[in-house]
Amino acid sequence: DSLSRLFARCGCVQSVDICEKPGPGEKKEKLTSKFFNCKTVTGFQVAYIVFRKPSGVQAAKALSREGPLLISTESHPVKTGISKWIASYAASVVDWEELKAEVDAYMEDYDKKIAEEEAKAAKEEGMPDEEGWVKVTRKGRKPGLPRTEAANLRVLEREKQKRARKELLNFYAWQHRETKREHIAQLRKKFEEDKQRIALMRAQRKFRPY
Question: Which residues form the Ribosomal RNA-processing protein 7 C-terminal domain (predicted)?
């Protein structure tokens, strides 16, 4: 924005491309997302300013005789220090609704692309090409699930079955522990009863261990 404003005095600026290093073949990719694939470049960079008319280039060359160009002015101040930190922090806070809308739009385009590819593959399956060859395809045992509503329902159903089996196993384990606990309690009860019977027989002098 600053470069476009500074060089607008030379003519209409069509575009400004900022690159990491100079090179005629380098073309910066246009960012399609403000949340993903945002690479932060530090250090020096190179800017390519494209004017709508060739006269803008000649006017830009003549700017060197007019003195330096000031990026930060009273009318267009550049934030520095704590103001810049506050602005950077505010920009880093994610708007969840905007993020969700972007993800939903991306997944909708992805599902549409996959559906078109599957429809095209199904249409071309078994059809000979120009040389008469027939392309034979075989899907794997576990092909990637398409992100559709039906696939999501199947995944949820499998998770539900897993939870049911886990709960059943936990119930069996709890039942086994309860049975074992009851058996131990019965053994202790029988042991106490045997102790009392032996003590009674000793008291009556009828105890004959051999």
Answer: 92-210
